């Protein structure tokens, strides 16, 4: 088996409704980039972990599922996912569909072409936000502005992941 060029770490907690959609979109991307998905579930009471196992059996790309006993936080979920990943490049995507998987081939290409880091930003030229309610957009813009001013940053999206 060809080692993956990309490991996509997906921390989850109560993501049962959106996870199948994300996996379907990642499957389409996997025709362009050899990737694996590492789902790190924090004991979701809605059954996200069990659903992830089911998706791992049927998906056209490798999916690993890391089960954690309870909500332990995003940073440690990412680190646990990285610990089992096999990709030459690693990225993190939210399971809530706020990060478009369709951007992954361009991000991997940037790293392959020599970039140390490639970041997709909702507020950079060409970036955007899909399907966010108005309140979430307002909060995002406000928090971004506060961080930029408070820390004296010139980057457009200091809160981007």
How would you sum up this structure, described in words?
This protein is an alpha/beta fold. It folds into 2 domains: about 5-110, Spore Coat Polysaccharide Biosynthesis Protein SpsA, Chain A; about 130-160. It has 5 helices and 4 strands. The chain has helices spanning about 20-30, 50-60, 75-85, 105-110, 135-150; strands spanning about 5-10, 35-40, 65, 90. It is globular, with a radius of gyration of 16 Å. The two termini are about 30 Å apart. The model has no long low-confidence stretch (mean pLDDT about 90).
Please identify which CATH superfamily of the largest domain we are dealing with.
Spore Coat Polysaccharide Biosynthesis Protein SpsA, Chain A
The topology string of helices and strands comes to EHEHEHEHH
Mean pLDDT: 89
What's the alpha carbon Rg, rounded to whole Å? 16 Å
In terms of quaternary structure, the protein is single chain
Biggest pleated-sheet summary? 4 strands, parallel
β-strand amount = 5-15%
Count of DSSP E strands? Answer: 4
Task: Return residue spans where pLDDT drops below 50 for at least 5 consecutive residues.
Answer: none
Major beta sheet, strand line-up: 3-2-1-4
Q: CATH fold name of the largest domain, please? A: Spore Coat Polysaccharide Biosynthesis Protein SpsA, Chain A
Percent helix: 25-40%
Distance between the termini: 30 Å
Structural class: alpha/beta
The CATH architecture category of the largest domain equals: Alpha-Beta Complex
Number of domains: 2
Number of helices: 5
CATH class of the largest domain: Alpha Beta
Overall form: globular
């Amino acid at each position: 088996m060809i080692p993956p060029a990309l490991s996509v770490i997906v921390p989850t907690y109560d993501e049962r409704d959106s996870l199948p959609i994300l996996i379907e979109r990642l499957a389409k991307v996997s025709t362009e980039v050899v990737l694996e998905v590492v789902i790190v579930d924090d004991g979701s009471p809605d059954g996200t972990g069990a659903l992830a196992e089911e998706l791992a059996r049927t998906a056209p790309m490798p999916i690993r599922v890391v089960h954690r006993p309870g909500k332990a936080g995003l940073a440690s979920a990412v680190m646990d996912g990285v610990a089992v990943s096999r990709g030459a490049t690693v990225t993190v995507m939210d399971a809530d569909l706020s990060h478009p998987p369709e951007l992954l081939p361009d991000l991997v290409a940037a790293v392959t072409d020599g970039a140390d880091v490639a970041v997709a930003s909702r507020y950079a030229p060409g970036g955007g936000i899909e399907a966010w309610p108005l309140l979430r957009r307002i909060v995002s813009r406000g928090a971004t502005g506060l961080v930029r001013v408070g820390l004296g940053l010139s980057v457009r999206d200091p809160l981007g992941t």
